[in-house]
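Supplementary Note 3. Input sequence used for the single-chain structure prediction.
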Amino acid sequence: MRADEPATLLMVAKTAGVSKTTASDALRGSGRVSAQTKARVLEVADALGYVPNGSARHLRRASTGTIGLHVPDVLTRSVYYMAFVFGVVQRAADNDYDVTLITSGRRTPRVDGLVLGDPLADDPIAAKLMGTGLPTVTCERFPGTGRADGVVRSEHAETIGALMDHLRANGAARPALIVAGDVSDWAATVHGSFRAWCARHAVEALVRTVPFDGSPQEVRRAARELLALRPRIDALVCGPAGAAADLVPLLREEGRAPGRDLLLASCVDSQAMQLADPPITAIDLRPREAGARCAELLFELLSGQSPAGTERVHPVELVVRASSRP
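The predicted structure, written as discrete structure tokens, is reproduced below.
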């Protein structure tokens, strides 16, 4: 550090021996930081003369001090995307940035960079944003034309395989899947992984697709079609967020008891899965952490800390509950 070089958050973190996120949380008084760690970070920041003057920093870089965020048009009814947005906003605030939610592609947004949450191949706004030339990070790969500068992705194929192995170990011999088409990288991976698992185990791949923003009525229609099959299915995996919990009353109407004579699982965890009767086995995608990771990678690209083409793996987890343990 040169004598005329202003102290940065990264310098404070390195000197204090903590991560940049921990240093930011300690200085802001947020997050889960111990009193001892907070005292150490504050001491180092004072010694280095660190001043978190975001406005001045943005002016020196001739930047807008804002990043853009675009998510599929299901935000208002999706707990997953709401949590994702909060993760992006929190990490942007940690870096003294604002966030603009982008809902139109009519003009190039006045932002320093972009975060696209699970961009859809047929989303015209996502396609236009990918062509703006602005530094862009996507949560999962963009299945359309264009390549992001950074990608935060998860090993969904492995997790779907683990879910199917679990269902098979608990007696499922004729599983079925409801999936939200193939317009997003996540949905396509769920679909492809299910079919690949069925092929490996010589099991018929029973699948019904619904639109990515499909209504509850469309999901129920798909479920009724699967429940009417002969021989009957004995496990149902629901791709769309929230669908598994919504289908519990329908399953009971059809004379199927979730967790007893039909195993039930969701590809997206939420509080609704935890509070369902019975609690539903689900994959915890950790959306808030995913949003934070996307924002972190974007700031690393903007500062030159990470090169274009960087990919990060965001961990997800299978959470087994009573709905799949007869």
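The domain at 156-284 is CATH 3.40.50.2300 (Rossmann fold). The CA atoms of residues 165 and 286 lie 22 Å apart.
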